[in-house]
Amino acid sequence: MTNPIVRFAPSPTGRIHIGNARTALYNWLFARQHGGSFILRFDDTDKARSKEEFATGILADMAWLGIEPARVERQSARFADYQLVTEELKAKGLLYPCYESEDELERRRARRRARGLPPIYDRSALELSDGQRQKLEAEGKQPHWRFLLPNYKDDVLSIERTEIHWDDVFRGPQTVDLGSMSDPVLVREDGSWLYTLPSIIDDAAFGISHVIRGADHITNTGAQIAIFRALGYIPPAFGHHNLLTGSEGEGLSKRLGSLSLQGLREAGFEAMAVASLASLIGTSDAVEPIPDMAGLAQRFDPQKVSKSPARFNVAELDALNAKLLHGLSYDAVADRLTVPDGVDGALFWDAISGNLEKLPDADRWAEIVRSGAKPLIDDEDRDMVSKAVGLLPQDPWSQSTWMDWANAVKSETGRKGRALFMPLRKAVTGSESGPEMTKLLPLIGRKTVLARLS
User: Fold this and answer.
1) Which end of the chain is least crowded, N or C, by CB within 10 Å?
2) 109: domain CATH number?
3) 360-373 burial, b if ≥16 CB within 10 A, otherwise e?
């Protein structure tokens, strides 16, 4: 395979969710694996719903994930090209006007079902005379425009089985019967385009070699290949990956904000934890944190992706995020980590990293090291803690200081085990759990501990 060109084409009508991210990631990983390029294309032909704030947000989401587009394109800048192709299809008789309302279409579909026929459009608009069309338009009806599928021989009203075949990148040989489909609407009554035609025109213009997207587009692919061919374009290769759902199997939606990347980022998750889970869930590979995109690209194999939907569970992301953090070096987080003044950052990270679920959790431990938390001292431990203060080792403190102090308190009070260590931890940190005290105590320092407990 030579330098493939792929694209991710979100509509800027909302923030993208984890399911959209899976598509973006699979395109990005495929391009990286084969030395290709990735185009981010905003499908913003819907002027009413497309917002610049959403486009800006999607760019931020891509950057956060580590996806770096070679180009960013906007369909709103290419309307003139779409209009030229639209007129070409009309001139060829491949795009024809239809005047039925949605209610009329539903009644026709119901009648066909009752007759045991597939509920597809019957092409009755093709039987209208010029005079009938003029009359309908004079009555204020504006046409929508359908593409005439090549699923007939001599009579356009005699639809027959017509197979479109392709070798899917994820699913292997696929077949779609154009005879089971309605002629797709490409242009709305107001003259605006649905996504299909602009997408095909852009894919050809930008040299897209592979279209990688969700399995909900499989049926569409048959019609789209027919349109590519009608325009004299060579269709790209197609790949349809399985879809992600929520933890209960529910569909994901931009409009509902379902598991949006913005929300996951603001919740403190690491980008590579999100990318790892979104890429590996629903595959035959083990789901584990991969520290960088190069590692994910090495693992990416479309043949390992299941054909069944996969459920994205935030609880699983919590565990994966923690595991990723525990394996990161200080250098990997240094620019995002708040380190208390006068404390060595690498030592601070070494002390706390194993207890973090999300990086912002580090702020709590920075505050404990910096100025302390309110000591937690149970009534039965007050005498012991009071004696412990007088037994604090002198400076300098090291990782042996915690055990030196505990042994001194043990000798003085007779306490041991949990009854010894837990009261000291709670008194110093205000918490029953946390980092190893051998590492944390020297960072807090003798002066702060004395001020906290005196």
Assistant:
1) C
2) 3.90.800.10
3) eebebbbebbbebe
How many CA atoms within 13 Å lie on the side-chain side of 276? 24
CA distance 193 to 81: 12
Per-residue pLDDT, 374: 85
**Does residue 371 have a pLDDT over 90?**
no
pLDDT at 1: 66
| pLDDT tens readout for residues 321-342 | 999 999 999 999 999 999 999 9
Please return the burial class of 151, using the count of CB atoms within 10 Å of its CB with bins 0-12, 13-18 and 19+: buried
Computed on alpha carbons and rounded to an integer, the radius of gyration of the chain in Å comes to 31
pLDDT tens track for 205-259: 999 999 999 999 999 999 999 999 999 999 999 999 999 988 877 877 765 566 8
Q: Report pLDDT for 118.
A: 86
Residues 141 and 107 in one domain: yes
Looking at 273, 294, 327, the residue that finishes a domain is 327
Looking from the CA of 262 toward its CB, the CA atoms found within 13 Å total 15
Q: Please write down the long-range contacts of 345-350, taking CB distance under 8 Å and 24 or more positions apart.
A: 347/439, 347/442, 347/443, 348/443, 350/439
The pLDDT of residue 373:
76
**Burial, 167: exposed, middle or buried (Cβ in 10 Å; 0-12, 13-18, 19+)?**
exposed
**Spatial CA neighbour of 15 closest among 260, 195, 213, 246:** 260
Alpha-carbon gap, residue 29 to 298, rounded angstroms: 8
Integer Cα distance of 205 and 228 in angstroms:
12
Provide the 3-class DSSP secondary structure of residue 183: coil
- Looking at residue 260, the DSSP 8-state letter turns out to be B
Closest CA to 355 of 454, 431, 256, 271: 431
In 407-453, where do the E strands start and end? none
Q: Are strands 210-214 and 237-241 parallel, antiparallel or unpaired?
A: parallel
Tens of pLDDT, residues 170-216: 999 999 999 999 999 999 999 999 999 999 999 999 999 999 999 99
Q: 281 and 164, same structural domain?
A: no
Note the pTM of the prediction, 2 decimals: 0.91
